[in-house]
Dimethlysulfonioproprionate lyase DddL (Paragemmobacter kunshanensis), 215 residues
Amino acid sequence: MTGAEPTKATPEWLALLAAFDAAYGQAADAGSAPIADHTARLRQALARVQAGPPRLSPRPAADKPVTRWLPAALAAATRGPFADMAMALLAVADRLTWEYGYASLPEALARDYAYCEILGPQGPILADDLILGLVLFAPGTHYPPHHHKGIEESYLALSGRWSQNHAASHAPGSLVFNPPATEHEITTGSAGPCLLAYGWLGDPRRLAAPGMVLS
């Protein structure tokens, strides 16, 4: 958190939360009980934040080298299945705090990857038991194997094509679910950048200090 006194979330941030909820509702019907359970609990946690009302603790905006691809990724996303989320993101794009989450990274990954938290312990929208955010990859990026101890994770594909663990080619509109401690790696297609939304559920102590480490 920034240390500033939280304030009431403004309409553009509220619209983004609503877009996250709608996107997870749209992607939940996968015929999979674990995915349905995860998305239901995620949306319940989000509903509690929305009823709060949401508290905003703005962070300083920060770019990383990969954010040179953000305009192209958002433009592609506005033409995809989660266009409403892309439009909501455009309204706050200049206020996002992009970071790495690791103490050190290979040079190529530091150039071609970053994430930003939208909702969670670090803000800008505050929550203890849920994190929502974005991950941005340049074309042709390999995100090495890693896992999240005690955290269950899902990805929503906003733009670009990508694979997880070399098992399938995922297009915009898809959802991928990782139970806690699932080892996974990501490879993105070469035709354009890849923008994923993500959701994390876990114990608040774990979400506050996830301890991200590449395998």
Remarks:
- The radius of gyration is 16 Å.
- The chain has a mean pLDDT of 94.
